[in-house]
Amino acid sequence: MASKNFLPDHYLHALGLVTATWAIFETSVDFIVLITFKMFERHPDHKEMPRTSMWRKIGYLNDISGLPQFASWRNAIERVATSAESLRQERHDAAHGAIEERVDDHTMQVFRVLHEKTDQRIKQSKVTADSLIGLAERIMGEGSSAADLARELFDAAKKAGGGALNHAD
User: Fold this and answer.
1) For residues 42 and 122, what is the distance between their CA atoms, to the nearest angstrom?
2) What's the predicted TM-score (pTM) here?
3) In the chain, is it the N or the C terminus that has fewer CB atoms within a 10 Å radius of its CB?
């Protein structure tokens, strides 16, 4: 794919790496939410399982981490929630920012419109291929930890007789 008139290939590859690693990370978060919601006593403030918004999933994880049935996993759940919160915005800026200006072959000026309760504002930032690769590496590391937690929770739910989850080995 020749991208001379649009974006350099190395920038597009790095952006693709961020997108792919985020998909893995978010899927692990989804499994954690599903397992904890279906298999264990629910948090009284969450009548429905958070499905789409990462912000809601983070809130759910923060809320359940203090429940007694999750005492063994409290630190791991809090780590997933904290890492999701810190990586979410940076990834969102990179993946959903509109390219305003190609500063050079390595740096893009991007912007997003942030919708706040009573107003909107523009957020600008500079993004490089190297910063995207670094972000993807951090996402992959946290995704691996989240996947380990999801597997551990799934195994515990199975041992507890978790028939509410359908799983094909």
Assistant:
1) 38
2) 0.83
3) C
